[in-house]
Amino acid sequence: MRRPPSSHHHQNMLKKGPWTPEEDIILVSYIQEHGPGNWKSIPPNTGLLRCSKSCRLRWTNYLRPGIKRGNFSDQEDRMIIHLQALLGNRWAAIASYLPERTDNDIKNYWNNHLSKKLRKLDAGLDSQHHQLTNSQSNIPRGQWERTLQEDIQMAKQALHAALSVDHYSNPVINTNSNSNLLIHHHEPLIPRPPSAASYASSTQNISRLLRGWMNQESRRSGHHSYLPAAWSMANGSSPSEDHEGTLSYSSYSEVSQPEENTIGQLTPETHHSHCRDHSMAGMDLHDHEAPALNLIEKWLLEEGGLPTADDLSLL
DNA sequence: AAAGCATTCAACCGCGATCTT
DNA sequence: CAAGATCGCGGTTGAATGCTT
């Protein structure tokens, strides 16, 4: 849809531009068999005229089950705002706290919506003669404070929910090594939950997938998440357009069955798992206590560490 | 109604990190 | 261990789409 296929490609040349449904099917069925990862082996084995990088991207940002697109909730908004204030533009790290969202999606959403929203808010406050501009010493007051308190509550809840899903026995000190960045001592990068690891299996999923595409093709308006819908149908969850309003990580819980290795961000080889049983959607996540409070959560809980207006108006 | 401008977002690129040989 | 291959991230692009004039 976006980006047209590269105009000239000799036989051997790799295709670029948007993925077609046919290509998606090929990719998905291959990954069903072999698991995600090993991207370099995909083009030769499937005949896809795509580079491995493109395959990975397509999978992780679009085809992978358990991802939600569009319709960001207020809670998600706030969580993203907070996390970005804390972490900067480290979208992958931020995304690890929002298991249903991809880093790309969050990044896009930030750039297109949130940063503007914040700028506007900031400007509004500015014109209200509020000088919140020295970064170090100011404690947010009044409106800001109230808002932030609420936000922190939200984020805290969300974080609890997110964390409580995995029962990591060990707290994963294995920090990911981009510690050369801004906020070195908080290296909260928890492993991306294994939601990406599981994928629907069985061929009927693919036919459902296709149906989703059909629908999509017929009315190419609205940015619906037709694909995840198709997946969730395939996974046995309610076929209704479940853009669940309240912050629920249900689709995460459907999908994730953390068992074996939980370290690091999905090491592909371990994901030949046959996660067919995604039926734990009813599980009440909110009542679980997070096993490992990490630094972010501490930060969220602390009063002193509130993000400043400056923090929030970055960019 | 159509032309021009703005927004959206899937996909690309470059590069540093990590893995493999 | 070096060198090359691959992965993963973040910034950026640009056609499609939406909006305004």
From TrEMBL:
Q: Name one Pfam family in it.
A: Myb_DNA-binding
Which positions make up the signal peptide?
none
Q: Which InterPro entries match?
A: Homeodomain-like_sf, Myb_dom, Myb_TF_plants, SANT/Myb
Q: Name one GO biological process term.
A: response to auxin
Entry's PROSITE patterns?
HTH_MYB, MYB_LIKE
The GO molecular function terms of this record are: DNA binding
Q: Where is the Myb-like domain?
A: 11-63, 64-114
Q: What is its main location?
A: nucleus
Gene Ontology cellular-component terms for this entry are: nucleus
Map out region (Disordered) in residue numbers.
Answer: 234-275
The protein's location, in the record's own words, is:
Nucleus
Location of the HTH myb-type domain:
11-63, 64-118
Query: Mind listing the UniProt keywords for this protein, alphabetically?
Result: DNA-binding, Nucleus, Repeat
Q: Where is the composition biased (Polar residues)?
A: 247-268
Fetch the SUPFAM superfamilies from UniProt: Homeodomain-like (SSF46689)
What this protein is called in its record is: Uncharacterized protein
Species of provenance: Trapa incisa
